[in-house]
Amino acid sequence: MARRKRSRVTRKEQMRPPTSIRREMRAYYRGRSRGRKPGYIYLIHLYGDIYKIGKSVNPGSRLKSIRTSSPDAEIVFQVHCEYMGMAEKLAHDILSDKHHKYETYQFPDTMIDRVKEDMEYVASLTPKRIHDERIPWR
Fold first, then answer.
1. Contact 119, 77 (CB under 8 A)
2. First vs last C-alpha separation in the chain
3. How confident is the model over 8-30, as a mean pLDDT?
4. What's the pLDDT band for 62 if we cut at 50, 70, 90?
5. Domain of 99?
6. Which of 28, 30, 39, 48 is spaced 20 to 30 Å from 106 by Cα?
7. pTM, entire model
8. Any domain includes 1
């Protein structure tokens, strides 16, 4: 029986951003950045040590719709960003080890300051800055 070759992931492939971000970077350099939609990324406390990270143009109205299923929900943090879709994806990627279900994450209250710092960082990023600084991806 013939042995199959194991595919090896090169360092270059590990550093390569996800497809959606690459698409946004190409659009940015072509001068027609479709993904540039300003808005907010937010951190909402749902219950216990469960939090939701999401994006919205109007986080207040988003909170109202979340309160239909989780009445005690409250916005812990929100930050404005120029590329809210990209920033939300990056925030999800950074906190992937704390993933609970869907867009919810489970972490202790002591970690909130670190999460806020991470969210501020991803909100400040642009496709050009990601490309220029060669920010590593998981």
1. yes
2. 35
3. 63
4. very high
5. 36-133
6. 39
7. 0.72
8. no
